[in-house]
Amino acid sequence: MQKIFDFLQIESVGIRILVLIIMTLLVLLVASVTSGITSWVERRVAGRMQSRIGPNRVGPCGFLQWIADALKLFQKEDIIPEGASRVLFRLAPFFGFLEVGVMFSLLPWGKPDWILADFNIGILLFLGFPALAIIGELMAGWGSNNKWSLIGGMRGTAQIISYEIPAAIALLPAILSAQGLSFKALMGTQSWEPWNWFIFHSPFAFVSGFIFFIASLAEANRTPFDLTEAESELVSGYTTEYTGVRFALFILAEYANVYILSAAFTAIFLGGGLLPAMFAPYPIFYFLAFFIKACIVLLFVIWIRWTLLRVRIDQLMVFCWTRLVPIALASFFGEIIYLFFVHAFPIIQQVVSIACFIFGLFILYYLQKRVRFHISLQKLDAEAKQYWVRST
Hints:
Helices cover 72% and strands 0% of the residues. By secondary structure, the protein is an all-alpha fold. The termini are far apart. The model has no long low-confidence stretch (mean pLDDT 83).
């Protein structure tokens, strides 16, 4: 923000406060639009994966469906259950919305210095502010005076607190390599070449990237870790009693967190929006590169949701404490040893990075083969249905 004040040559305290309010509203507007578009993308992808169309009525390819849904929710009656704690019930949705706004301001949007709130400890803030979502979920569960909501809120609290630990440990190798706790430092140590992205820095960084991704899925309450809203068990979890605008705020925070997850993974492990020097006169390409990478990660998150089954709550906690945490610690200590050898023999770094990059390409090749196989099955199923219709 100080760069904005210096660029606009603003010295008055009152005008600075006004600019802060305007920037806050803009961030929340961008978060809301991003959340709505993400919900439309997920519904379209889910339709394709289930051999149906998905939203296709409002706007081209149903693109305006998220606006129609928002208008509908804003017109719904705001019902507060009898016996609920009115203060807690009313305040709970705004904590998740506030967390989304803060997280958006901490993320880079292309170049390493394209950050609205650039702190030297940006990573620590990024790991700490999800506590606002924890408070909101627990307040919603307790304030609703509903046993299903309370169980959902308690599950969400245990889940987010537990998975914060492997997520934080998984970031330690990146912090060691960058020698800093800011997104600017983490992106500055990478370059535009894929083999110089941090996820290919070493085998331990590769494992840390996947641990961070899995832990972020759990923190965002995404399948297979959506135990807080398990419809088959808890109706709708901590949002069961919510209607109208307050329910819309919970949905907005949920889908905005999907993009935040994707953007954070892109900035830390996939080189952000870094491009060759030839693109320096065209800043928009840096934003587009970052946005495209984040969208690819986002599509992968959606793919996981509509592919995997939901786990049980005991399996969720056991997986965190007996699998992710030990593996994350082993990756951290392995990265320390690896950095010691790289410092002694610099040639090792380039060889290992290229080897990890080739291994990553092999995984992508395997995944696209699975996708093509799934699509071919869908075509065979569609052809079989057409043949059955013709024959009858």
